[in-house]
Amino acid sequence: MKHILVCVKAVPVSSSVEVDGQHRLKRDGASLQWNIADESALEAAFRLADRDGSVTVLTMGPPKLEGPLLELLARGANRAVLVTDRLMAGADTRATARALASAAEKLGPFDAVFCGCKAIDGETGQVPGELAAALGLPCISNAEKVEMAGDGLLVTRRLEDGVQNLTVSGSAMVSFSSYSYPLRLAGIPGMRRARKTPVEILTAADLGLTPEDCGLKGSLTKVVAMESRFPGLRRGPKETDLDAGVQNLRVLLREVRP
Known about the structure:
Layout: E1 3-7, E2 10-12, E3 32-34, H1 36-49, E4 54-60, H2 66-75, E5 79-83, H3 93-107, E6 112-116, H4 127-135, E7 139-149, E8 152-159, E9 162-168, E10 173-176, H5 188-196, E11 200-202, H6 242-256
Parallel strand pairs: 1-4, 1-6, 4-5, 5-11, 6-10, 7-10
Antiparallel strand pairs: 2-3, 7-8, 8-9
Helix pairs in contact: 2-5, 3-4
């Protein structure tokens, strides 16, 4: 696998989440971390490209992500690209996929495009499919394992009632479930590479996108209300009889998963 593009997203640390008057997450002042499923996608790409391939990591977000992208260079990425522009603030999944697709077309071609199946801040899981459609690629979702199969890929994906093995030839979009591949630590060679490799910056103008293509103006959906809800705990009576305890547990499990 010669050249893999990995799309990653920086998500707010849960303890630092704030929203503005338009129900948008405040990312500029929040503590950010890489989405765990995207880290799985990145490590999967590293393992495929370790011998003779290369990995380009792409993200969209505020300028302060330049530093975290340098860390991903140190961990193994060959190229890091940040799409950043105030015009893109408040983008929904469609506008996000459009911007990422424009960047991918500018930076490519690629033998494969990887990303996480969903981000923990929005949980929509829509971007992989929308990005694949924009790029004209087949999309394999919820991957747990990927390996080379001739000139293509053998992908193992998780289904509700088991697993499925798929072989795909040619370029494809693969989205990974969380914790599929733990992301490696930075090594000395990677740290040296990061010192010599600047993060590339792309704006809406660089991608040929107009204000109507970006952010809220380019979005088909809008958040109209938000509220915080914390599930309460339900404490049952203490049960000393093992058989009765097992029966009570069965009842509780049927309630949460019919």
